[in-house]
Amino acid sequence: MNFLAHLLLSGSPATTPHYADRVVGNFAAEAVRGRAGLLAYPVAVQQGIQLHRFIDSFTDTHPVVRRSTARLRAAGLGKWAGVVADVGYDHLLARDFARYHPDPTEPLPAFAQRLYALLHERRHELPERLQEMLHYMRQHDWLTGYAQPAGFQKALQGLARRVPSAAVLATGAAAFLAELPAYEQDFQEFWPELRAAVDTISQVSNKA
Description:
By secondary structure, the protein is mainly α. Helices cover 75% and strands 0% of the residues.
Protein backbone atom coordinates (compact mmCIF):
# COMPACT_ATOMS: atom_id res chain seq x y z
CA MET A 1 0.00 0.00 0.00
CA ASN A 2 1.06 3.59 -0.55
CA PHE A 3 1.15 6.72 1.66
CA LEU A 4 -2.58 7.33 2.07
CA ALA A 5 -3.38 3.78 3.12
CA HIS A 6 -0.48 3.63 5.58
CA LEU A 7 -1.51 6.91 7.21
CA LEU A 8 -5.18 5.94 7.44
CA LEU A 9 -4.29 2.56 8.94
CA SER A 10 -2.23 4.23 11.67
CA GLY A 11 -5.43 4.55 13.70
CA SER A 12 -7.36 7.42 15.21
CA PRO A 13 -6.38 10.29 17.52
CA ALA A 14 -9.37 9.45 19.70
CA THR A 15 -8.84 5.71 20.07
CA THR A 16 -5.21 4.83 19.32
CA PRO A 17 -2.65 5.07 22.15
CA HIS A 18 0.41 7.11 21.12
CA TYR A 19 -1.32 7.90 17.84
CA ALA A 20 1.12 10.62 16.73
CA ASP A 21 4.10 8.35 17.42
CA ARG A 22 2.49 5.59 15.39
CA VAL A 23 1.90 7.94 12.45
CA VAL A 24 5.50 9.16 12.56
CA GLY A 25 6.81 5.59 12.64
CA ASN A 26 4.51 4.40 9.89
CA PHE A 27 5.65 7.25 7.65
CA ALA A 28 9.34 7.06 8.62
CA ALA A 29 9.39 3.33 7.83
CA GLU A 30 9.63 4.17 4.13
CA ALA A 31 13.33 4.87 4.78
CA VAL A 32 14.12 2.85 7.94
CA ARG A 33 16.06 -0.32 7.24
CA GLY A 34 16.69 -3.35 9.42
CA ARG A 35 16.65 -3.89 13.15
CA ALA A 36 19.27 -1.24 13.83
CA GLY A 37 17.16 1.38 12.11
CA LEU A 38 14.11 0.28 14.07
CA LEU A 39 15.86 0.41 17.45
CA ALA A 40 17.08 3.96 16.81
CA TYR A 41 13.53 5.16 17.59
CA PRO A 42 11.50 5.26 20.83
CA VAL A 43 9.28 2.25 21.46
CA ALA A 44 6.04 4.00 20.50
CA VAL A 45 7.52 5.07 17.13
CA GLN A 46 8.90 1.56 16.65
CA GLN A 47 5.32 0.29 16.80
CA GLY A 48 4.49 2.50 13.83
CA ILE A 49 7.48 1.18 11.88
CA GLN A 50 6.49 -2.39 12.67
CA LEU A 51 2.92 -1.64 11.63
CA HIS A 52 4.19 -0.34 8.28
CA ARG A 53 6.22 -3.49 7.76
CA PHE A 54 3.25 -5.67 8.65
CA ILE A 55 1.02 -3.83 6.16
CA ASP A 56 3.60 -4.25 3.41
CA SER A 57 4.10 -7.95 4.14
CA PHE A 58 0.37 -8.66 4.36
CA THR A 59 -0.23 -6.79 1.10
CA ASP A 60 2.61 -8.33 -0.88
CA THR A 61 1.57 -11.89 -0.03
CA HIS A 62 -2.20 -11.51 -0.33
CA PRO A 63 -3.76 -13.51 -3.18
CA VAL A 64 -6.05 -10.66 -4.24
CA VAL A 65 -3.10 -8.27 -4.56
CA ARG A 66 -1.19 -10.92 -6.47
CA ARG A 67 -4.15 -11.12 -8.83
CA SER A 68 -3.85 -7.38 -9.41
CA THR A 69 -0.10 -7.49 -9.96
CA ALA A 70 -0.39 -10.45 -12.35
CA ARG A 71 -2.83 -8.44 -14.44
CA LEU A 72 -0.46 -5.46 -14.45
CA ARG A 73 2.51 -7.63 -15.42
CA ALA A 74 0.47 -8.94 -18.33
CA ALA A 75 -0.14 -5.31 -19.32
CA GLY A 76 3.62 -4.76 -19.62
CA LEU A 77 4.57 -3.37 -16.18
CA GLY A 78 6.93 -6.23 -15.34
CA LYS A 79 8.70 -5.91 -11.98
CA TRP A 80 7.00 -2.55 -11.39
CA ALA A 81 3.52 -4.08 -11.26
CA GLY A 82 3.50 -4.00 -7.45
CA VAL A 83 4.30 -0.29 -7.38
CA VAL A 84 1.45 0.46 -9.78
CA ALA A 85 -0.93 -1.67 -7.70
CA ASP A 86 0.10 0.18 -4.51
CA VAL A 87 -0.49 3.62 -6.00
CA GLY A 88 -3.61 2.43 -7.83
CA TYR A 89 -5.11 1.14 -4.61
CA ASP A 90 -4.40 4.52 -3.01
CA HIS A 91 -6.24 6.12 -5.94
CA LEU A 92 -9.30 3.98 -5.22
CA LEU A 93 -9.02 4.65 -1.49
CA ALA A 94 -8.80 8.41 -2.06
CA ARG A 95 -11.60 8.45 -4.63
CA ASP A 96 -14.02 6.73 -2.24
CA PHE A 97 -12.47 7.97 1.00
CA ALA A 98 -15.75 8.50 2.84
CA ARG A 99 -16.54 4.84 2.30
CA TYR A 100 -13.34 3.63 3.92
CA HIS A 101 -12.52 6.21 6.59
CA PRO A 102 -13.85 5.14 10.01
CA ASP A 103 -14.70 8.80 10.73
CA PRO A 104 -17.30 9.90 8.16
CA THR A 105 -17.17 13.49 9.45
CA GLU A 106 -13.59 13.96 8.21
CA PRO A 107 -13.35 14.30 4.42
CA LEU A 108 -10.12 13.55 2.58
CA PRO A 109 -8.89 17.17 2.33
CA ALA A 110 -9.27 17.64 6.10
CA PHE A 111 -7.59 14.30 6.82
CA ALA A 112 -4.71 15.19 4.51
CA GLN A 113 -4.11 18.60 6.08
CA ARG A 114 -4.25 17.13 9.60
CA LEU A 115 -1.64 14.50 8.73
CA TYR A 116 0.60 16.96 6.91
CA ALA A 117 0.57 19.19 9.99
CA LEU A 118 1.35 16.31 12.35
CA LEU A 119 4.26 15.09 10.23
CA HIS A 120 5.59 18.59 9.61
CA GLU A 121 5.65 19.28 13.35
CA ARG A 122 7.79 16.18 13.88
CA ARG A 123 9.73 16.26 10.63
CA HIS A 124 13.07 16.33 12.50
CA GLU A 125 12.41 12.70 13.52
CA LEU A 126 12.16 11.55 9.91
CA PRO A 127 15.05 10.32 7.76
CA GLU A 128 16.44 13.22 5.75
CA ARG A 129 15.13 12.13 2.37
CA LEU A 130 11.62 11.83 3.80
CA GLN A 131 11.81 15.34 5.23
CA GLU A 132 12.40 16.63 1.72
CA MET A 133 9.68 14.43 0.27
CA LEU A 134 7.20 15.55 2.94
CA HIS A 135 7.81 19.16 1.90
CA TYR A 136 6.75 18.39 -1.68
CA MET A 137 3.94 16.10 -0.58
CA ARG A 138 2.45 18.87 1.52
CA GLN A 139 3.12 21.65 -0.97
CA HIS A 140 1.42 19.78 -3.82
CA ASP A 141 -1.15 17.94 -1.66
CA TRP A 142 -0.36 14.48 -2.93
CA LEU A 143 -2.84 12.71 -0.66
CA THR A 144 -5.86 14.58 -1.99
CA GLY A 145 -4.48 14.47 -5.52
CA TYR A 146 -4.56 10.67 -5.53
CA ALA A 147 -8.35 10.85 -5.80
CA GLN A 148 -8.20 12.05 -9.41
CA PRO A 149 -6.89 9.98 -12.34
CA ALA A 150 -4.56 12.88 -13.20
CA GLY A 151 -3.09 12.81 -9.69
CA PHE A 152 -2.63 9.04 -9.89
CA GLN A 153 -0.86 9.43 -13.22
CA LYS A 154 1.30 12.29 -11.94
CA ALA A 155 2.45 10.19 -8.96
CA LEU A 156 3.65 7.38 -11.21
CA GLN A 157 5.23 9.76 -13.70
CA GLY A 158 7.18 11.33 -10.84
CA LEU A 159 8.47 7.92 -9.78
CA ALA A 160 9.40 7.13 -13.39
CA ARG A 161 11.56 10.26 -13.50
CA ARG A 162 13.24 9.68 -10.13
CA VAL A 163 13.93 5.96 -10.23
CA PRO A 164 16.55 4.58 -12.65
CA SER A 165 15.15 1.99 -15.09
CA ALA A 166 11.55 2.74 -14.07
CA ALA A 167 10.43 4.61 -17.18
CA VAL A 168 7.66 2.06 -17.72
CA LEU A 169 5.89 3.42 -14.62
CA ALA A 170 4.78 6.39 -16.73
CA THR A 171 2.37 3.97 -18.46
CA GLY A 172 1.12 2.43 -15.21
CA ALA A 173 -1.91 4.64 -14.61
CA ALA A 174 -3.21 4.06 -18.12
CA ALA A 175 -2.83 0.29 -17.70
CA PHE A 176 -4.63 0.35 -14.35
CA LEU A 177 -7.45 2.60 -15.52
CA ALA A 178 -7.95 0.54 -18.69
CA GLU A 179 -9.18 -2.35 -16.53
CA LEU A 180 -10.56 -0.27 -13.68
CA PRO A 181 -13.61 -2.44 -12.82
CA ALA A 182 -11.34 -5.43 -12.20
CA TYR A 183 -9.08 -3.42 -9.88
CA GLU A 184 -12.08 -1.93 -8.09
CA GLN A 185 -13.31 -5.45 -7.38
CA ASP A 186 -9.87 -6.49 -6.15
CA PHE A 187 -9.60 -3.51 -3.82
CA GLN A 188 -13.11 -3.90 -2.43
CA GLU A 189 -12.28 -7.51 -1.59
CA PHE A 190 -8.82 -6.78 -0.19
CA TRP A 191 -9.32 -3.66 1.94
CA PRO A 192 -11.65 -5.15 4.59
CA GLU A 193 -9.22 -8.03 5.11
CA LEU A 194 -6.28 -5.66 5.49
CA ARG A 195 -8.27 -3.44 7.85
CA ALA A 196 -9.25 -6.42 10.01
CA ALA A 197 -5.67 -7.72 10.14
CA VAL A 198 -4.34 -4.30 11.16
CA ASP A 199 -7.01 -3.94 13.83
CA THR A 200 -6.06 -7.34 15.26
CA ILE A 201 -2.34 -6.66 15.54
CA SER A 202 -3.00 -3.13 16.83
CA GLN A 203 -5.10 -4.53 19.67
CA VAL A 204 -2.26 -6.91 20.58
CA SER A 205 0.28 -4.08 20.40
CA ASN A 206 -1.83 -1.80 22.58
CA LYS A 207 -1.99 -4.46 25.28
CA ALA A 208 1.77 -5.06 25.23
